[in-house]
């Protein structure tokens, strides 16, 4: 998938710890290998606050306009929908931070031609600094994934929606150098598909991050 995105944010500080903002973006999404092209415009207004040194919150609501190629590729389907984004963090101690987020967004459907998906996602997690060199990140998420156009199914066209539950944990070790980190990560997801069979996925990965 190829993605081009341009965005702009205008902030105004109301107090030392609170600001309001306007956010706008333009996205051009092109499904690699499929003929589908999706154009998305978003506009949100909201606020961000640092009420204490331990708590932060950023939230905005607005509208999202999308144009998605039709199934036969001869035109576009246009839609305007509610758009939202919220993210918060709470440092319960020097070592532990709790985080939560909620958002909706558009994504090109990579498995079918001329389609896109509108995704609504909620997540909670924690960042735990076990020591100066060892860090644990854990996240759980729930998402609803709806295809914009109907999809071909058994000689007919049907709406398609998927519900997903996901979990991820990453353990990162940063040795006492300024250019290296090593991590191991595990992910689990369960997908409830209203057209096809439900399925589970497991993934374990090991990696190295280098920077200079």
SSE topology:
Blueprint: E1 2-13, E2 18-30, E3 37-49, E4 55-69, E5 76-91, E6 96-108, E7 116-129, E8 134-147, E9 151-153, E10 156-158, E11 161-173, E12 180-193, E13 199-210
Antiparallel strand pairs: 1-2, 2-3, 3-4, 4-5, 5-6, 6-7, 7-8, 8-11, 9-10, 11-12, 12-13
Explain what the structure shows.
This protein has strands at about 1-15, 20-30, 35-50, 55-70, 75-90, 95-110, 115-130, 135-145, 150-155, 155-160, 160-175, 180-195, 200-210. It has about 210 residues and is mainly beta. Strand 5 (about 75-90) and strand 6 (about 95-110) form a beta hairpin. The protein is globular. About 10% of the residues are buried. The mean pLDDT is about 90.
Summary of the model, kept short:
Helices cover 0% and strands 73% of the residues. The protein is built from no helices and 13 strands.
Largest sheet: 11 strands, antiparallel
Q: Which structural category do the helix and sheet elements fall into?
A: mainly beta
User: What's the arrangement of strands in the largest beta sheet?
Assistant: 1-2-3-4-5-6-7-8-11-12-13
Uncertain runs are: none
What key phrases describe this protein's structure?
13 strands; two-stranded antiparallel ribbon; globular; 212 residues; mainly beta; eleven-stranded antiparallel β-sheet
């Amino acid at each position: 998938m190829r993605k081009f995105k341009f965005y702009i944010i205008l902030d105004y500080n109301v107090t030392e710890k609170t600001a309001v903002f306007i956010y706008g973006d333009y996205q051009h999404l092109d499904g690699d290998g499929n003929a589908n092209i999706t154009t998305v415009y978003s506009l949100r207004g909201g606020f961000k606050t640092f009420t204490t040194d331990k708590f932060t919150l950023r939230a905005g609501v607005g509208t999202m306009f999308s144009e998605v190629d039709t199934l036969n590729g001869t035109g576009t389907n246009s839609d305007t929908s509610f758009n939202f984004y919220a993210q918060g963090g709470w440092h319960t101690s020097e070592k532990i931070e709790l985080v939560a987020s909620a958002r909706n967004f558009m994504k090109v459907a990579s498995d079918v031609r001329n389609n896109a998906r509108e995704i609504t996602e909620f997540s909670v997690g924690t960042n735990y600094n076990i020591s100066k060199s060892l860090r644990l990140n854990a996240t759980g998420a729930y998402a609803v994934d709806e295809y914009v156009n109907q999809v071909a199914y058994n000689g007919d066209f049907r709406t398609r929606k998927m519900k997903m539950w996901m979990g991820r944990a990453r353990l990162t070790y940063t040795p006492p150098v300024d250019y290296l980190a090593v991590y191991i990560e595990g992910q689990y997801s369960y997908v409830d598909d209203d057209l096809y069979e439900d399925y589970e996925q497991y993934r374990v990965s090991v990696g190295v991050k280098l920077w200079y």
